[in-house]
Every structure is written in C-alpha cells, then in structure tokens.
Amino acid sequence: MKSISGAVAFVTGGAGGIGLGIARALAEAGARVAVCDLNGDRLAEAADVAAREGWADRFLALRLDVTDRPGYAAALDETEAKLGPLQILVNNAGVGIAGPVDEATHADWDWGVGVNLIGVANGLVAGIPRIKAHGMGGHIVNTASEGGIMSARLTRGIYAPTKAAVISLTEHLRVELEEKGLDIGTTVVCPGPVSTNIAETELFRPAEFQVDSPFRARDNPHGALPANPGGANYWLDPLLVGRQTVHAIRENKLYVITHPAFIDSVKARHAAIEAAMAQDYLPRE
C-alpha cells in the first residue's frame, strides 16, 4: 500500500503503548482509524490524543476483547459502517505474561495463548474476508516480539513462544497471499524494549484466570533483558515504532525489528540450531 491516506485501519490494543503509536502514525499518514481496547479509560485518553493531534474526525473508539469472537465481528461491522471498508488490520493486542514456565498453571497458558496467539487468529478469520471482498487491496500487521527470535530468557516461557508463533503465522500468511496473487501485504512487528504499559498486564487478567500462580506476583514484567550494546535508544518511543510500521506497510516489508543491537542473541540461537544439524551431532545409523 503506497497510499495510506483515506484507508480504514483497525488497531487492537490500540489505546496505549505500541498500539497507540501505530494508530497515531497511521493517522499522520491520513488513515481513518478504529482504536480498539479493553480499557475504557485508555480509550478516552486515546480520544484526547486524537483531538489534540487533529484526527478526531477520523477516529473511532471501540471496546474489544480479542478473545470474544462475536464481539470482534461486531466491532468490525461498526468500523465499516462508520469509517468505510477495512483495508489495514493491525492485530496488536497482547499480554506481557511473565513467570517461571516450570511453575505455570493451565490458567496462565490459557490466558497467554488465548490473547497473544488466538486473539491474532480471531482477527485474521474475521478481517481477511472483508479485505478480500472489496478488492481494493490492504495490509495485515501482527505484533509479535523480538523475543520470539532471540535466545531463551528467564520468565518468558509462555510469552516468547506465543510471539514466535505469531512470527511464523505471518510468514506463512504472506506465502499464501502471494501464491493467490492477492494485493494484501503482511508485516510482523518484533519490538524490543518500548515505553509501554506492559507492566500493568496483570491488572487486566480476567477473573477466570486469576489462580494462585507465580506469574501473578513477578517483579519484572519484561523478564531478564539482555545487555544493550549500544547504550542509547533502549526504551523506544511507541510513536517511532508506529512510524516504522507505517513505512513497512508502504513498502510491504515483512519484518519490523526495532532493536538491531540484539542481533548477537539471534545469531547465538540460530548457531545452536545449525550446530544441531551437523552430520556428527546425532547418530546417523
């Protein structure tokens, strides 16, 4: 999509953090933006941002739990009724669940996977047919994490696998759409540390998942972060990530990886995989 101006975008988890950064950047480019979030207070704050920045007439606030499939369809119906046909779908909503994976409960798994992976799938199932139907083309953005391609870290045994799955999902989606010759681009956003409200993750854990678990009593929602070789620009402004994402939409770039300084961690993981493929790694007879 070279031109974003006038396109209708739908951003989940859009009232704060990276989601709001993407929504603001899309609005800068002229898009009409439906901002969806669970938190009504944050939606009101996002409306204030839109008014302050001059895109209130292209802003729609919607309450949405991405695990609610009928609610997802209803939110898209309202978006298209008020803003126009969906072209840009941003599956950004996620939870920064963190804790020792060897002590995880079913509730921890159900919540983390339900939001971070199935929530994305719900967006694709509900949104892709709408983009295909109008024939104007479009773009799908899925937010994952740089942790999905890096070496394993403490406390990330649910979070990182869900994000790795979103990366693989997006790669496969791109192949499928290209094979069909459809004018629908794909991007997976893999952020490192960004100034967001991820520390508040556990405040929004639904009651049915509020079991006795170490995941609900951890001190560091980001887990053990790797050293920052560059020293500067560690915690990025979400608006910068939003602008990087808009650039990727325009150029149909598959990956947005915000922290290239962490490349050594990625290389170490890949080197271990390659080493395991050596002829002498396993018995061959």
Automatic annotation (TrEMBL):
Keywords: NADP, Oxidoreductase. The keyword Hydrolase does not apply. CDD domains: SDR_c. The keyword 4Fe-4S does not apply. Gene3D superfamilies: NAD(P)-binding Rossmann-like Domain. GO terms for molecular function: oxidoreductase activity. It comes from the Bacteria. Belongs to the short-chain dehydrogenases/reductases (SDR) family. This is SDR family NAD(P)-dependent oxidoreductase.
